[in-house]
Amino acid sequence: MQANLIEFPRELVAARKARPRLVEGPLRESSEEAAHDRAQLRIFEVDLGSISTAVQIEPHADERAAIRLDEGASQESRERERTALQPPLKVAPLEDRLMAAIVDIALVFGSFALFVLVFAACTAHPPSGKPAALGAAAVLITFFALYQYLFFRYSHGTPGMRYAKIALCTFDDENPTREAALRRIGSLLLSAAPLGLGFAWAWFDSDRLGWHDRISGIYQRSYY
After folding, report:
1. H or E stretch covering 117
2. Alpha carbon distance 40, 10 (integer Å)
3. Strand runs (DSSP E) across the chain, as ranges?
4. Beta bridge partners of 3
5. pTM for this entry
6. Would you give the DSSP letter of residue 10?
7. Lowest mean pLDDT among 66-75, 93-102, 124-133
């Protein structure tokens, strides 16, 4: 199968100094005819089988992979900078926190003992056995939660914390709001629920923090 191929002449305009001079003498007419032939359109018959119609696609690198790597590297660098800029936690020593807890627990147990004496004096037939133990445990937990709520609702710390000269502080080295301090009470009860394992975890934690500190984002800091 044959096809027609049209060739368009390309005019090459040289610079003024580089233009060749016209041929002089008897060769001038032949050179003009050759230039005229080059200026005309020429049609050739070409075999279609000799024309390649295959599309060649050159392999190229996936730029998106490089972008994703750059974004990941920049994110990791930002995380490292943020970690480096964060102030170190000034956690109160375990001895001071234990001292504060002993003072607070003593006050709670004192209030609980006074409540039991008043309840026994006002009740003709006080309960005994297992119901009495369950009731006492429920009242003790209520007293502890109420004790924490009252002092964090109307003050910035419990008497035990004031005695040990410690106060609550956030991980951003700021004073927590009253609402955040009240929410921490639920974390305290959660740490005490599994036989006090949440408090004992402070002995193994790298920052000496318990479950309630990690959950609430608030810890006890020394101020002396």
Report:
1. helix 94-122
2. 10
3. 2-7, 42-47, 166-170, 218-222
4. 46
5. 0.58
6. -
7. 66-75
